[in-house]
Structure formats: C-alpha cells, structure tokens
Write a structure and sequence with these properties.
alpha/beta; Rossmann fold; 2 domains; 11 strands
C-alpha cells in the first residue's frame, strides 16, 4: 500500500476514511470498503480514495475492485498510486509494458529515508556486489542509472574517474548526495531519456529494470551512449515463463532468452549468470546478472519507440 498523501478535501469524507482504516485494522474488510464507498459518495473526485477502495477490495476478494481502480485512473491519469498496475494484475493480463513514472517517483520518494536499511539489513540486497564482482580495471566515465541512494555508486567509486548517478526520485538523489559518492547527480526519467549527447565507458543499472518492463528503448539508448567496447552491467528478476511478466509484487521479471535476444539486436556481447538478488518475504529472488560489451555500432531508437535502426 502507498499511504494516502492528500485528504479528500471534505472533513466528513476524511473522517469516514479514517474509521474505515480502523475497521480494516480490526479485520472487518467488507465494512471498511463500505465506509470508503460512503466517503466517496461525499467526495467523488477523490482519486486517492478510489485507489484505496480498489486496493481493499482486491486484497480481500471483494467485488468492484477493478472498477474502483479504473475510477482512480480516470481521475488522475498520471497514476501516482499505480492503479493501472493493480488493475492489470486483477485481470491477469497486463496492458502496460512499463510502470507509470509518477508511481515510481512517489514510491521511491517515500522510501528514500529508510531505503538502505530495508534493502541491506532486511532484504539482504546483493545486486551492487554481484555487478561489481564482474568488473575489472578502471573506467574514465561511469553512469549509474536509477542510482537511488547510492548503493551501486559506493561499489563503483574506486573504479570510476568520473561517476554520475541519475534517478527519477528527488528524495533518493538527496540521500545519495549526502554520501558524497558521485561527481554529479541528475533527476531523470529513464523511460523518457533524450538522445545521448555524452559518451560513457560503463553504464550500470542495479535492480532498476524491475520498474521498466519492456527494455527495448533503454537498451537502444545505452547502445548509443556507450563508447565502442563499453560495458553495460545490470540485473533483472528472472522470469521462467513469459519474456516480460508483471508479478504480484508489482515488479517486472524478464526471461534470459528475451535479454539475450535484445542485447544481440543492439550490438552487445553478453555474459549472463544467475544469482539470488535479495530476499523478499523470506523467499530468495533469483535474477540475472548481466555484463554486456558493446561490440558493434550502436542502434538508434526511432521516435515511436517501436523499431531499431543501425546508426
């Protein structure tokens, strides 16, 4: 659940929502949903309330979950709560091939203050160390995509002459800045990057593509941004079924065949190993650790994001 960040604007509706949360904490999900529905009769334009109603109904097998989520999405198409993802999971057939940028930004803005503790101490997060173990020598220019609070940057600092970190979350960047790891930090939506104007010797993305889904656009961008012989190092959660799948965790997983084919099309020679990336609810999350060398001319992404052409 993402906490409701804004009130409905109506005191009575807010009070009913508060009572509903109390009922839910006491195990009365149906009564809580009914009370939220009453609150929304008073404040029908409250997008966060519609999302919460859909979430409660979905979590407890109550009717009308998809309708409530659809209403939240109609009221706020930017979708900061991830209503489309939750709706698609209910349908069992995701329609979107990437997460809403507003949802990812809001998620990590809220998570930033306790991100390091949660990942390292609680989830035994290993992606930075796994990626660092496959890198040797020094690199003149290194770019850490989705840098977060700087866990990957800390692993890269000793091999980078110049290290930059890009992330969609301003709060994550603020936390990273306090560590004084990066030479430069920049706020960037990895789903909407402009054509690269700088070249890089190494580009990393540690557990970032879990939130992107389809990777054609970002792989094409990296192929253009890397110097010949440059390295693209990243991790993904492993899908043994579909090429790209949205899991109940609302994270995407990718098959090894999909990753290999995509990298080959983009002119990379990959080395791929399987490893446990972290723990989640006591279960090991298996993923792919990828070290891909740009061994052919880069590829230019077309403006519609659907095709690739040799540059």
């Amino acid at each position: 659940m993402i906490p409701l960040q804004f009130s409905s604007g109506d005191l009575i509706a807010d009070r009913r929502a508060d009572y509903a949360e109390g009922l839910l904490a006491g195990g009365e999900a149906a009564a809580a949903a009914d009370l939220y529905a009453q609150a929304l009769e008073i404040a029908p334009q409250w997008g966060a309330g519609w999302y919460r109603l859909g979430e409660i109904r979905a979590d407890h097998g109550l009717d009308g979950a998809a309708d409530a989520l659809e209403r939240a999405l109609q009221l706020d198409p930017a979708d900061p709560f991830g209503a489309a993802l939750r709706r698609d999971l209910l349908r069992g057939q995701p329609l979107a091939d990437t997460m809403p940028a507003a949802f990812v930004e809001a998620l990590f803005d809220q998570y930033a203050a306790h991100f390091d503790h949660a990942l390292v101490e609680t989830l035994d997060y290993r992606a930075p160390q796994l990626l660092r173990a496959g890198l040797a020598g020094r690199f003149a220019r290194v770019l850490d995509l989705g840098c977060g609070t700087g866990l990957m940057g800390a692993a890269l600092r000793d091999l980078a002459e110049h290290l930059e970190g890009w992330d969609i979350s301003a709060e994550m960047l603020r936390e990273a800045g306090t560590k004084q790891i990066y030479d430069r930090l920049e706020k960037a939506d990895l789903g909407r990057l402009d054509l690269p104007v700088e070249s890089w010797d190494l580009i990393t993305a540690a557990d970032v593509f879990l939130y992107l889904g389809a990777l054609e656009q970002i792989v094409g961008w990296v192929a253009q941004a890397l110097v010949p012989g440059g390295i693209f190092a990243f991790t993904v959660e492993l899908s043994e079924d579909a090429p790209v799948i949205l899991r109940e965790s609302r994270r995407y997983a990718h098959s090894e065949a999909y990753i290999r084919d995509l990298l080959a099309q983009a002119g990379f020679t990959p080395q791929i190993t399987r490893a446990v990336l972290r723990m989640d609810r006591g279960a090991a999350i298996e993923g792919l650790v990828v070290q891909a060398t740009r061994s052919a001319p880069g590829l230019r992404r077309q403006s519609d994001g659907e095709d690739m052409a040799v540059a």
